[in-house]
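quick one, 483 residues, struct below
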Amino acid sequence: MQATAERVVSSTQEQATASWINYLNQMRLDELVAKLQQQDQNLEASLETLAALKEAVDHVITSDRGGVKGMHGFLAEVTECGFGNARALIEGQEPVYEWVNDNGPVDMVRNGVNIQQKFSQANGHYSLDAVKEHLDHYPDFLKNGGKYQIPKDFYEIVKKVADMKGDLSSLNANTVPTLSQAKWITEFLENSGITLDDLEPSALNYRDVQKGTVKKTIDNEEKEIKDRDKERRKEAYDESKPTLREGAKATAVSAVTEGGVAFCMAIAAKCKSGKKISEFDEKDWKEIAGKTGLSTVKGGIRGASIYTLTNFTATPASVASAYVTALFGIAAQVRKLNNGNVSKEDFVINCETVCLDVGVSAIASLAGQVLIPVPVIGAVIGNIAGQFAYEICKKYGGKKSADLIAKYQREMEILNQQLQLQYMQVILEIRQAFKKFKSLEELAFDTNVNKAFLASVELGRYVGVSEDALLKTVQEVDDYFLN
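---
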């Protein structure tokens, strides 16, 4: 009874570990599904924003808002807002831009920051003249936390000049910017009250938002959004993959759990033998430590194996645990066989018993998890119930099974004797029939035509040709071929 209880406790602990590892795997898969579903919504919202942007751009163009000189400014504002919101949405964030669209001191608001956008090529000063003009009209704009936004390619040139810190020796009339433009930018940043920190680059270059190019710019952005969507889905998939860190965690927990169970069971066994814990001597503790250490190592191997099998092969956790347990059991039987402790017949029987035991454990755990879909708990309850039912069947069904097996064995011996006699009789009949067939075959191909003809008729009858189909006389042969 004690051995049965220990076996049930051990198998339950093993299946609990397997179920826990399966739960870790399922959590990662559930998280992946949730991320992909959310990304579906992100993509839909982002593309809807770009679709609305196309309509707004069409309205600006068809209404000729701003005229020849000012239209690209309005196109830049609405496109900047559309791109900014679409890019935020594809990342799962809230829209960041609001287009003010009232011809006031603020063109757009981004996360509470007022932005004035200037897209101007006047005087070749990269929109800085327009920025200064706006600040002259609204001197408190920067003090109140506002920001000026200029085309991305213009900003890069202004920043390049600012980073030179007055050393413009590498510039001339043929460079971008030219030497004279760079001198003007340097003086502007020193004397206008506007610094590089007051400026920021747009998401757009100056040429991107002209009347003839803006729609192509939006189409390109739509492709970029779809590419970013694919990247985010790949990132989610990569994050859902099994990791070395999680595998190490599963290995460690399995090792500690199995070692702890073995430690408690070893102490319990000593106590049941009549010893108190205070009476344990050095030999007792060494024995307990040995069992604990061995189980800890086996637990580590079990955890690593189950994690690998469940993540890299289509193996359920309970089956993976049973597979590892069976390997341990068979390895022990191999060792006994090599040491001469068991016969070959007993080795086979013992291996079959090991596989049957772990098979019952796996099936019971799977059934328990289905009936009680709570991580770990279902597998534990299913395994305990299945193992005890299995032990009861083995105990009370053993004698009846032995009697049935003995009865069947006697009946099989008698049947084998009867079949042997029938077998010999059939073989004798086959040999006689074959001998006769051989004789008829030889006669059917005799060089004497008359003998061959008569023998062929007999051969046909022998092999089962109907009497009506046989050509038994010369007249019948002539009638068959000539008529």
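Confidence is low (pLDDT under 50) at residues 1-5, 364-374, 376-394.
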